[in-house]
Description:
two-stranded antiparallel sheet; binds NADPH dihydro-nicotinamide-adenine-dinucleotide phosphate; 2 domains; 5% strand; 60% helix; mainly alpha; 3-stranded antiparallel sheet
Amino acid sequence: MSDAALLNPPTTHYEFFGPAGTMVVTVATTAIPYLLYYGCETAEQCPPTSWSAWKNRLQRLTLADLYDSHIMLLYLAWFAYLVLLYYVVPGSTKPGTVLRTGQRLLYRINGFRSLLITCGLMFTVHRLYGPAPFIYVYDHYVHWLTASYLFATVQAVLLYVWSFRGPSTSSATATIKLKSDADLKADGNGATASPSTGAAQPVLLALGGNSPSAFYNFFIGRELNPRLGDFDLKVFCELRPGIIGWFVLNFACLIKQSQVLNGYITESMALIFFLQGLYIFDTLIYESSVLTTMDVTTDGFGWMLSFGDLTWVPFVFSVQARFLALQPVVLGPILAATVVAIGVASFLTFRLSNSQKNIFRTDPHDPRVRGLKYIETATGSKLLISGWWGLSRHINYLGDWLFGLSWCLTTGFRSPIPYFYVLYFAVLLIHRERRDDHKCRQKYKKDWERYCSIVKYRIIPGIY
Length: 464
Ligand code: NDP
């Protein structure tokens, strides 16, 4: 068997109900951001009074409604600006998880600083030019959506084609090669500083992206970590153009509302800006924790992540702020206090549980996790069975979902459109939990069954 065949075994297990399922998901997820926009185009039509009104509106759309070449160029400039920050802003370097090749890729960590610089830039632009540039961003919402969609799709096609290239030598500065346990302990972060050199290696494919179906592979992603030199496209897209873009869109919505309300904003707008801002800042403050997520360790960089990171995140997650820009909602003290209470409790659940696992996995002797119970597995990894991780096997998902609910509640109860987020996110998290369970069952075998018999619930303690 060739090196490439040994390294990249064929995919035998399909996710998303196989090739047909991924086609349905592709079409549906392409349509949804547009349906959400045109389902809530004006305060009176959110949602339209009937499905036929909605359909009529969609049928009247012209190319100019959907696409604008200036915005396309500005989107490319936005992407290039973030690439520039990636290179010029000082940051640290962190190793990713161990790959099947035995190597660990190095990642540049300066996303949070890129966010702060962008905030500074937004503040400066607002001081110099007032609200106009942000109203422009708001008014071209659909054009941005289409620009990001085209970029994400073209990127996915190019990456798919590029994944068929022949073996190459990995960049000496971009990877580190593991030597021994002693070396791992030597530098405290599990990696040695000796660069990999020499022999050409076949392209490392995602285990799930090497099936007989070309479309399925395009969707899931063939190559695990496509890179241009040291520049890791997947991790860059995962955290920067979409997530930081979402923050800019939310700010544009806030400015739009203050224009409509003669300089004021409602407490609901302040809340959504603050709560989602907290999520965005948290994501980038804990930038390196993305390196151990399924997206980075398991999934290839295909259409699913390219579209998800660049289009879905900014344009589906900003629906509440856009709704509030159209329809200023005054929550009143009781509902506002409820939103804050759910937001704070769920954010703490999400953040503390994720941090507890990260600390435990980095250093089980850390005083913050030393007293926790865990089980040893045959692979050498330990699984927590007390603390947050004794409550359910994915208590972090529950915190994340409830945090999303607090965002939706900022819009009151006038329209179901902003609640689409919690519906979709429930489906995503339930499906994600099943995928993670499948992965862990294969990895830990009998130990996973033992773990599940101790921590019985998947996501919601006592219920599910
Ligand atoms: P998790 O952070 O929950 O990590 C799952 C992995 O953790 C498992 O594969 C296993 O990996 C390890 N693990 C499982 N149980 C234990 C345990 N008891 N003790 C120690 N390690 C354990 O998964 P995700 O990457 O899916 O999610 C990370 C965060 O990102 C979540 O908070 C989620 O809500 C959020 N998220 C948000 C999304 C969004 O769109 N807003 C989308 C997806 C995720 P190992 O093989 O190392 O043992």
